[in-house]
Design brief:
The protein is α+β, with helices and mostly antiparallel strands. The chain has helices at residues 17-28, 50-59; strands at 2-11, 31-36, 42-48, 68-76, 85-87. The chain is built from 2 helices and 5 strands; from the N terminus they run βαββαββ. The relative contact order is 0.37. The mean pLDDT is 92.
């Protein structure tokens, strides 16, 4: 199991980006969360099997239909969260 912390910037707040992330994560079996940050970015923590997490991280560039992703900064994250995928 691996965990990746992703900081997604662009038009990603107020456009159903987090809800769309949650739906896609649950489809893939990825655990973690997506939450808005005060600076306008969305923080996404994705944990699971390496190939699945990497597919999800690649998908973060798509997002919701109304979003416009400009950057996705990815870093390793050590502790896995509890099962499920949550938004905040």
């Amino acid at each position: 199991m691996i965990c990746k912390r992703c900081l997604v910037s662009g038009r990603v707040q107020g456009v159903f980006y987090r809800a769309t992330c949650q739906r896609r994560a649950l489809e893939l079996g990825v655990h973690g969360y997506a939450r808005n940050l005060p600076d306008g970015r969305v923080e996404v923590l994705a944990c699971g099997e390496a190939d699945t997490v990497m597919r999800f991280v690649e998908w973060l560039w798509e997002g919701s239909a109304a979003s416009r992703v400009e950057t996705v900064e990815v870093s390793d994250h050590a502790p896995p969260p509890p099962p499920g995928f949550h938004t905040a």
